[in-house]
Design goal:
Helix content is 60%, strand content 0%. By secondary structure, it is mainly alpha-helical. It is globular and about 70 Å long.
């Protein structure tokens, strides 16, 4: 018996009946199994080794290119989501490896400059009308994340991830409406990531906003502090405990939390939109980044051989240009814009 089969046997004995099993994982293209790792472990490793994952280190979470070393980036956000998801999955006897793989991949398609970047790319989609089905509703980072793992990584061959992981990627996003537990994914592990995503950013974005001087701890509405806690660690502990308790009580019919906890989490999210994400100081900088991305998109579209990849085959130049811009890090976008459009002093 291989190590992989031993691990699959352990899953069968120890995981909850509703947990996803690695032995049952499905891929669009058949391939030989690994003798050591389960299917979801292989997915996790493939995601970790992608160029798109490494680029998350230099993509905005909330604050654009912060000078302080302790502000979150898209990568640190991703790692925090993965940690929360694994904690919940383990407590509920669900598949930790699947939860971790979905968490690590969920933001691979996020563009530079955070949600401002997503906003301008959505506008560009409508302007240039890329002729692919996944763009009919505009640019969405969850759909782009799936495109990264399916069609862009590995020189256009994709990663051939399991269907369970790919479903979790496209089901994680909540939009501004914040529907945390409304839409159902293929697996409970993917639903955990959906919840872990908002738990992570509501807490770490609050922490960063306090560090940046946008908020004081006492600014958080008292009713939310009373229910969730006064510190980041207390809020994380209380919400995770609530999810584990409520989901377990329902015998994992779904991933749940108490109504009052859900109301407090979504209320915190709305509070952050009002006081931080849409703050005039941030909006002014991000308005500038919108101009940068528009200029880079138009330039790259006119020079496809220099900037865009020859894959995926059959896609329009406009769609491949969108991939190019969406994959940029903040610092690469700023550097390229400066190189292309900013004058340089004459050297004597």
């Amino acid at each position: 018996m291989t190590i992989r089969r031993t691990l699959e046997a352990v899953e069968e004995r120890t995981l909850h009946p509703r947990a996803a099993r690695s032995a049952s994982a499905r891929r669009a293209r058949r391939e030989a199994s690994c003798s050591i790792r389960t299917a979801f472990q292989r997915d996790r490793d493939r995601i970790l080794h992608t160029k798109a994952f490494r680029r998350l280190m230099h993509k905005t979470q909330v604050f654009l290119s912060p000078e302080g070393d302790h502000y979150r980036t898209r990568m640190t956000h991703t790692l925090e989501v993965a940690q929360i998801a694994r904690t919940i999955a383990r407590a509920l006897r669900l598949n930790e490896d699947l939860a971790e793989a979905v968490a690590l991949a969920h933001d691979l398609g996020h563009p530079p400059f955070g949600h401002a970047g997503e906003k301008v790319l959505n506008r560009l989609v409508k302007t240039y009308s890329p002729d692919t089905a996944d763009m009919r509703k505009g640019f969405r980072h969850d759909v782009q994340s799936l495109r990264v793992v399916e069609r862009l990584e590995n020189e256009g061959r994709g990663l051939n991830l399991t269907l369970e992981v790919k479903n979790g990627i496209v089901k994680h996003s909540k939009g501004k409406s914040g529907k945390i537990l409304k839409e159902r994914a293929m697996t409970l592990e993917a639903e955990i990531v959906r919840a872990a995503d908002i738990i992570a950013y509501v807490n770490h974005d609050t922490d960063d906003a306090v560090r940046a001087g946008f908020l004081r701890p006492g600014d958080i509405p008292k009713k939310y502090r009373k229910l969730l806690g006064d510190t980041v660690s207390a809020r994380l502990r209380n919400v995770v405990t609530d999810i584990v308790r409520e989901s377990h009580a329902a015998d994992l019919a779904s991933i749940r939390m108490r109504d009052e906890t859900l109301e407090a989490v979504t209320g915190m999210r709305a509070f952050l939109f009002e006081r931080v994400y849409e703050h005039p100081r941030l909006a002014r900088d991000f308005e500038k980044t919108e101009h940068i991305l528009e200029a880079l998109y138009e330039h790259a579209l006119k020079n496809p051989k220099k900037y865009t990849a020859p894959y995926p085959r059959g896609d329009s130049a406009a769609r491949r240009t969108l991939d190019f811009v969406a994959g940029m890090t903040d610092r690469y976008a700023l550097h390229l814009y400066e190189e292309l459009f900013m004058p340089r002093g004459w050297k004597l």
